[in-house]
Amino acid sequence: MTDDREYKRLVWHSRRGMLELDLLLVPFVKEAYPSLPEADQARYRSLIECEDNDLFAWFMQRSRPEDPDLARIVDLILQRVQPD
After folding, report:
1. Helical ranges in the chain per DSSP H
2. What whole-number distance in Å separates Cα of residue 31 and Cα of residue 58?
3. What is the separation, in whole angstroms, between the first and last Cα of the chain?
4. Has this prediction a pTM greater than 0.70?
5. How far apart are alpha carbons 11 and 18 in whole angstroms?
6. Domains delineated in the chain
7. What is the chain's Cα-based Rg?
8. What is the pLDDT of residues 7-42, one digit of tens each?
9. φ, ψ dihedrals at 16, nearest 5°
């Protein structure tokens, strides 16, 4: 039950109020998050604690996170919307 509650919290916090972020984060948390390895799930949980302005800059590829863990999860999310 705690896992279900935690997952619902993640879905809720993935809604950022900025359409560009919502379109990336909500589908990612619903479709990809459950199958991620635990380390990447932890990275995502850290990511959603970041400021919207930082997230927007990272996802619009205007800058990169300094933290390599955050950079990895940003890359995973971007790969879902920009496959090679």
Report:
1. 2-14, 19-31, 38-47, 52-59, 68-81
2. 21
3. 38
4. yes
5. 15
6. 2-81 (1.10.150.250)
7. 12
8. 999 999 999 989 999 999 999 999 999 999 999 999
9. -100, -15
